[in-house]
Amino acid sequence: MSAKPKKTPDTLRSSRWFGPDDLRSFGHRSRMMQLGYAEEEFRGRPIIGILNTWSDLNSCHGHFPERVKDVKRGVQMAGGFPVEMPSLSVDESFTKPTSMLYRNMLAMEVEETIRSHPLDGVVLMGGCDKTTPGLVMGAITAGVPMIYLPAGPMLRGHYAGKILGSGSDAWKYWDERRAGNISDEEWLGIQGGIARSVGTCMTMGTASTMTAITDALGLTLPGASSIPAADSGHQRMSSECGRRIVDMVWEDLTPDQILTDAAFRNAAIIAMATGCSTNAVVHLIAMARRAGVDLTLDDLDALGRTTPLVANVRPAGKDYLMEDFFYAGGLRALMKQMEERLETSCLTVTGKTIGENLEGAEVYNDDVIRPLSNPVYHEGSLAVLRGNLCPDGAVIKPAACDPAYHVHEGPALVFDSYPEMKAAVNDPDLDVTPDHVMVLRNAGPLGGPGFPEWGMLPIPTALVRQGHRDMLRISDARMSGTSYGACVLHVAPESFVGGPLALLKTGDIVRLDLPNRTLDMLVDEAELERRRADWTPPEPKFQRGWGHMFSKHVTQADKGCDFDYLERGHGEAAGEPEI
Ligand code: FES
Ligand code: MG
User: Which PROSITE patterns match (predicted)?
Assistant: First the structure.
């Protein structure tokens, strides 16, 4: 514990529940005794909520029931009192139509769970894509000391002498299967070999991107995001989270002291240097807005132009996976490499600065974590486009697409729904050339609904059989962080609310100019006006329930897709419960 604790047993948040000699506190203490705890076990001690996004259907968090025990051990060693609080397990593998529909539900649940219970600090256990931003967004708003425990990546995939990467190799071998190059037996082998242990996707997909961002923000123990889930170091990290959060409570080290403008800038730089998932854009902006930090698409584009991609991890990198990244020194080593570009005075959950946390960090394999003089790609991972197709922006991952498409002009092939697109793609006689620009609309936050990861539109079978593996694709959807290809995503405003993508017709010429960051349809304004006058809004997707609320309040992609009323500045903060 630091020399001068700011909190005392009497000023702990939980003492409002357990301290007073009144009837309500009698009730709270009596119910703790019903749970089997003596007063000296919980009274006057930091109560640590362990917010655990485990479920039997979250394949990436299968080790969390064990890790909770490690966290509890750490909390108890440091003199705190741990309580496990199950939180919505937003899993990427099974949730339909898309996990993104539920990120904000998790964020709300976390905020309200903390606010309504006697918790002095929290350990947030997540990792599978949306769990990271969901947990962090809710905890930022709740404002108690927090530490993030990342699930860690799974081991490398493996089959028949080949290394397999989550997602990326599924898409790759699926194309080969459609081309007739893979037998049933091989396909089954790949199915069993591509996800071999607990943990999150082991490419630099959304999970690894978001945990790296959380690490760079200073919300995890330094470098924690790189430790493979199956490594015993992951258990030791978990118990250290337990020990550290207790001290953070005494120090009153709250997230607002950590999550400054500079911290978000650091995180964005590190995201670009790692070859981050395009989803980083949406979640970074949403988290920043919760923290009261103004981070925009243009800020991210500017950082993207000047930050080289140095993590040689698939899919943006060519050769390696997260396990290799860990052995090469992990995120601490990468941050050390980038130290001159970071604001190293930012405070972190350790109570020390980023600079102090990076002391002694080293790169052990400079082909995995490249020096700035020999990057994987000269610019960062993401670029933001604007033009008459996307006045509020769109996102592309230049390093992950065939350079032949960086400047491209071709006729649009437009689909209004995923089933329509799927049927066409599977038609071996589809009239399509590699110059065509495939477009899927009604796939955004409201249209999808929920902003699904449909943006890596499959290459039509007709082209796959001719040997083509990339083409320019545009949608208002997201794509998986493990995806790749010339895919323009997050077109804003989305077509479902009348964004200009709604006006595009098959045969219109579309032009992408990546170096100049533009995306346009070459259709004159008078014609677009006519089409706009003819456009009728589609029927809402939901009449009731969560989807109804989601549709009423979700913001567009460029604003982070939080709910308008959850963002900082929407009315007075709820504050603490009064009685
Ligand atoms: Fe959970 Fe990819 S499915 S991280
Ligand atoms: Mg994913």
Answer: ILVD_EDD_1
